[in-house]
Write a structure and sequence with these properties.
single chain; eight-stranded mixed sheet; six-stranded mixed sheet; about 25% helix
Length: about 450
């Protein structure tokens, strides 16, 4: 392949892609997606990639700035891939995400909601309570990098700060990098996962901040390395877990039995979790999202509700406080165990959980033959097309669909409306990941 000409060229940005890049046209009509550019701007851009139907580029200089452009808070913006939209006014970011959702409904599902819900937002900085830092020892720089990937995913960003990760974690990034750099196994640690619940006490009386780090290591750790990790955990109040192999090898190093938990006080619930479990990244938005989902579902005391892709019971247990019975179904057996434990932990007897792969044939599942009044689902990016095609949908009078991928929601909405006769009564976006291009959304369907 011929080398890419990186000579800067001038373009007018006319739109925004779904991943937050500016859209422009070459003189020959070919589309070019420009990182760091906003609609209405004239910029100098340098090409970074070439494809048959479009080119990729990055902004070198902004010639005419859009009024919505703001100064990025983070010094690493544009290099680190953690954020794509820090240069865009926050109110405009969420409206851009709303436009993405509506365009997907129109283009993929050929449907439109009767009502657009007001965007659901919460704090936009320091919200990320779960994530994964990549780790790389760079011999040329004689240092170990701990951070997110660069926009070129081959590299780890050399970051000193992060404004979207919770401050008690983000502020320790330089010290975390120094810790790993001082370990014998520094070349054999590919990643560190972080997760945060509420402040807890360790079983041995040592207080910790509710933050847990899981250190993935490819070789056995020396006693000195283990001691260094324990000392770091004690100094900062972080629980430290080790992961020498697969998910089943994760075990606590310090404290001996740390309690990881987060609460949903409006439903008097406390959720226990393990350090690599899926929990919603944005705690403040999560509480608002659950409330909105329940408001849309309109659960009645006599209702029996089906909750698909239930995870730890994030929606199931709040629902159980309001209905006769709720059944949660989840594909990951470990999460199903934790959901049952959380029901018992909170004294909830009217929630039952089943493990089932919701992308497979479900005809043999007992819960498929049971009667329900309402359906709530929160599928992964791939959506819920397989399970929706199998469910006896006529029994439900309402469906609330929480989505982390607008294209799959739009596809499934098209199926429900065009092929099953449902109405898309309302839909809207939720800013689970401010300053990124990630679009979280919610939709209400009625028969």
């Amino acid at each position: 392949m011929a080398r890419i000409d990186q000579t800067p060229f001038e373009v007018l940005i006319t739109d925004l892609t779904h991943d937050g890049r500016g859209v422009a046209r070459r003189p020959d009509g070919k589309a070019v997606f420009v990182a760091g550019a906003l609609p209405g701007e004239r910029v100098m851009a340098s090409q970074t990639g070439r494809h048959r139907s479009f080119d990729e580029a990055k902004t070198v200089e902004v010639l005419d700035a859009a009024p919505e452009r703001v100064a990025p808070r983070c010094a690493h913006f544009g290099v680190c891939s953690g954020c794509a939209m820090q240069h865009y006014d926050e109110e405009k970011q969420i409206l851009a995400k709303q436009r993405v959702l509506m365009e997907n409904f129109e283009r993929i599902g050929h449907v439109a909601p009767e009502r657009i819900l007001p965007p659901l937002v919460d704090t936009s900085w320091g919200y990320r309570r779960k994530g994964r830092f990549s780790v790389r020892r760079v011999e040329k720089k004689d240092k170990t990098l701990v951070g997110f990937r660069e926009t070129d995913p081959r590299f780890v960003a050399d970051i000193r700060e992060c404004h979207t990760v919770m401050p008690q974690i983000a502020s320790k990034l330089p010290e975390l990098a120094a810790l790993v750099d001082g370990m014998q196994a520094r070349r054999e640690i590919p990643q560190i996962e972080f997760i945060a619940g509420d402040v807890q006490d360790g079983s041995n009386g040592d207080a910790f901040s509710g933050v847990a780090l899981t250190i993935r290591h490819l070789v056995p750790l020396t006693e000195g390395d283990r001691e260094a990790l324990v000392a770091f955990g004690k100094a900062h109040g972080f629980a430290v877990f080790l992961q020498p192999g697969g998910l089943d090898t994760v075990h606590p190093l310090w404290p001996e039995a740390p309690k990881l938990a987060f609460s949903l006080p409006q439903w008097n619930l406390e959720f226990l979790f393990r350090p690599l479990d899926f929990i919603q990244v944005n705690a403040g938005l999560n509480g608002k999202m659950i409330q909105l989902a329940l408001d849309l579902l309109d659960p009645r005391p006599e209702d029996r509700v089906l909750d698909l892709f239930a995870g730890l019971g994030n929606f199931t247990l709040p629902l159980a406080r309001q209905v006769r019975e709720v059944v949660g179904v989840e594909g990951e057996a470990g999460l199903v165990r934790r959901a049952r434990e959380n029901a018992a932990h909170n004294g909830i007897a009217n929630a039952q959980f089943h493990a089932a792969d919701l992308a497979k044939d479900l005809s043999g599942e007992s819960w498929m033959k049971e009667p329900f009044d309402k359906l709530l689902l929160d599928p992964p990016r791939s959506g819920a097309d397989v399970v929706l095609a199998q469910l006896p949908l006529k029994q439900f009078d309402r469906i609330v669909y929480v989505s982390c991928h607008p294209a799959s929601l739009a596809r499934d909405a098209g199926f429900l409306v065009k092929e099953r006769g449902w109405k898309l009564k309302a839909a809207g976006v939720m800013d689970m990941f401010p300053h990124t291009a990630h679009v979280e959304s919610i939709a209400l369907f009625e028969r």
